[in-house]
Structures are given as C-alpha cells and as structure tokens.
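Regression report. Comparing outputs from two consecutive submissions.

Submission 1:
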Amino acid sequence: MQPRNMSMSGVVDLAAVKAAQEAKAKAEQARAEAARQGGGAGGASPADLVIDVDEAGFERDVLQRSAEVPVVIDFWAEWCQPCKQLSPVLERLAVEYNGRFVLAKIDVDANQMLMQQFGIQGIPAVFAVVAGQALPLFQGAAGEAQIRQTLDQLVEVAEQRFGLTGLTVDPDAAPGAVAEAAPAMPAGPYDALLEAAVHALDAGDFGGAVQAYKNVLSDDPGNSEAKLGLAQAELLHRVQGMDPQQVRKDAADKPADAEAQIAAADLDLVGGHVEDAFGRLIETVQRTVGDDRDAVRLRLLELFEVVGGDDPRVAAARRALARALF
C-alpha cells in the first residue's frame, strides 16, 4: 500500500485548542511549583520519548500528553513485516528529534478498540495527536526522507498553531518522570462554567455553550478562553441547521449577495478550508457597499477570532482586508 501523505493545511480547532493551551500552561506551572519544592523533574528521560500504550492508559499517555507535546502513534503488530521495518526508524527519529514529539507504540492485536476508533484498515498506520486532535500521517511503508518531511511539518504546525514546543530532555533524568501526574492547580473562578460550555459543545448543544460562555463574559469581559469559545460555539450554532448543498448553490448563483457568501464562509471554516473562507469574504467586501459590506467585514473579524490572531493565515487575511477596504 502506498503511503498516504499528511495534509495539515486545514487544521483548525473548533472546540479544544484554547483548553489544551490552558492545560499546558497549568501543567508547566505545576511542574515549576513542584521543582521549587524539590519534587519536580528537570526534564524527560530519553527513554520516555518512546512508550508502549494500551487502551487503559491511552487518555493519560496520549490525550493528556498531547496538550504539551505532539504524540505520534505507531499502530503495529508482531506479525506485520512492514511494521518491523518502520518502527525502528520511528524510534530512532523520536530520540533524534529530542523531545519535539513522543512516539506511542500501540499493538493492534492487544488494542483492537483503539484500532477501530481510529478507523484503521491496515498496518503499519501512523497518526499524530496534537492538543487532543487526531491527525492521520501516513499508512503503509514509507522512506525515511518522507517520514522526516512529515515529522518536520507536524512539529511546525504544533508549534505555530498550538504553541506546543515539546519536552525538555535531560539525559540524566529517571525514566518515567514525565508520566507522573502533575500536582493539581487551584480551580479558577470560572472553571466550572467553562467546563460546562465544553460539555455542551461535545453534546452538540451549541446554544447552551453560547449561553455558558456569555455568562462568563458578563462577569469577566476580558476572559480570553471564553471569547474564543463563544466565537467557536456561535459558528457551530449558525451552521447546525444549514443545508450545505443549498448554501453552496446560493453562493455560486449570487456572488455579490452578502448573506449567501457569509453562510458559505461559515461552512468553509467548519470544514477546515480556512483560506477559502477568508478569501470568499474578502472578495465579497470588494463587491459590496454600505451595510452589506459592514456585515461581511464583521463576520470576517469573527472568523479571525475563531482561528486565532497568531495564525499566519489570519495575519495574511488582515492585510488583504485592509487592501480591500482602503
């Protein structure tokens, strides 16, 4: 089977990026506090860069860890000859990349539920989990040059879009130190409301999530997590009842119709087509005037909030919007 290349161009988190960043920050604070008290590890052992993972430890070893470092998953089996060629390469590169990612090895024979959850049809299969999001990397045998290119792209995306710079590796650290649970940080005043909003998003109750985020912002207008969450929840709420085929048809038939283009841009973004969403609205700004133009511009600014101001695609679109307006 030919390797299936990874494509990261459409990765946009609509529910958990900010939460993952908050979790990362809290973990770093907890480790720093533990270190000041004499109980924290100075870094990860090289032995911690390649780990065996099973279903029982998946949440801790993969999902939680992905809030601070990309986790590459190698799905393998003892009887799989291509796996025996690929796995040693991945293990060597995990050590060479020195903490920029962690390699999690999952035996599919012993963990068939995980294999089904990831929709794996054949092995070897390699995925990554970044900030709680699963991303397919490639399936089947792959050359080292291609693997390096894929890993370089993964590391770049993790750092630029999710703020994950990886683990500090200490050759003298005891193996297993990074797997220990960090001490719990005191709960923030709005943690319960924010958690309720996330649960509402997960349940598809986007209206409830919108209200929960608004409740936080009514008391704390500067709460960055609630601002981002509200923008995401409102977007998902808007597209929930849309007929995608009809929305696309209306947008194609009426290129200067502000309402039609705004609806299509929302669908673009939810589908991960960030540049398409931004480009559609910028072109509509150029075609419209008055209140219609203002409505398109404001929706574009809202979508900037969803993607995040530090995303290079947002910076480029802001420049293009300025040219369109002036």
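Submission 2:
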Amino acid sequence: MKIRRVLLPAIAVLSLSSMAVAQAPKKGRGGPPRPVLSVTSSAWPDGGEVPMENAGRGGNKSPEFEFHWTLGTEPTSAPEQLQSYAVIFHDIENSTNKTTVDTLHWSAFNIPGTAKGLPAGLGPGDLPDGTRNGPGIASRGGTQPGAYFGPGAGPGPFHHYVFEFYALDTKLDLPANTTREDLLKAMDGHIIGKAAYVGRFHAPAQ
C-alpha cells in the first residue's frame, strides 16, 4: 500500500509534465524572419514639422521618399513577390461629418515594385512609370485627375499627417476615381510590407 501511495502522485506529476511539453508551442512556428519595409525622407524628419514647400498652403510639392528593406538590422533586398507600392496620405486630426473617417489628402497606387522611392514633386494623373494618382482632395470626388495635396491646417494646434506606405504582391486593377474604401479592399490580402511617416503642420499666425 505504501508503494502504491508513493507511485500514484509520481505518475500524476509525470503525466502533467508530458501534457505541458505536448502543448508547448513549437519554436520557429512563424517561419523565418521576413524583410521589413521602412521609409525615410530628406524633406523633414519623421514626426517633424512639414515645411511650407510641401504644404497645401505653400508650395504644395510632394516630398521625396526612399524605400528601405531590412532583415533584422541589416539591409536586404525587397521580397521577390513584390509587384507594386501604394501610398495613402491623410490628416488624422479631422473627423468628416462627425464620423470616424478622417481627411484623405492624397493617394497613389501601382507605384512600380522596382522603385527605390518617390521623387519630389510628383505630377498629377497617371504617370509614365505606371503610378496612378488616386482619390484625395485634388481629385474632387473623381472629377479631376488625382494629385498630391499637402497639409492645410490653419493657425492653432498642430495637425498630424500620416503617409502610409503599402508593399503589395500584385498590381491593382482600379480606376483613378476609385474610393479609399475600394482601394483598401483591393489591397487586403496582398500586403507584404507596410511603413508610415508622420509630419506635423499648422499655418503660421498672420
């Protein structure tokens, strides 16, 4: 009886240990590390103040951006499946018609996957490299060619403007007068990298 009383707790402990080992997640479950997209710009530091040259109330010139891919801390090549980039630029401080929708200033898609970034001063409409300017303030609901439209907050507290960059494994079969909702829907399931760049702006007091 004494032997039985000693063995039963020992067997129970071993059984629980075996269950814990069996239920432990396997290492490397997520697969090998994947390249990460990031962006930089010479126009202003990330999170810094947008200069008047790039503001809608000023020069209204789109800023230059560079795309970077890294694996850990080391630079690496873009993923082989990369086909295109898209960018959505919006004022996150605004609320449209009391909703959660903010102000979309500019968007562009089908930027070639071979692009190393965006040059400053992008033109409107469809560009020679296949880039298509999409919905935004300048397109006026699709009645005019899309184009960059810079920050326009008036004097007072800073508004925060976000450029969201998406790396996609496809090109998007969308018209230039598409909506932001349809653009996001078309990208869903094809995003292999994402990055953001932030700028602050308010117009100087008169």
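Expected: both submissions complete independently.
Actual: both completed, but the second showed a warning that disappeared on reload.
Relevant detail on submission 2: The CA atoms of residues 174 and 183 lie 8 Å apart.
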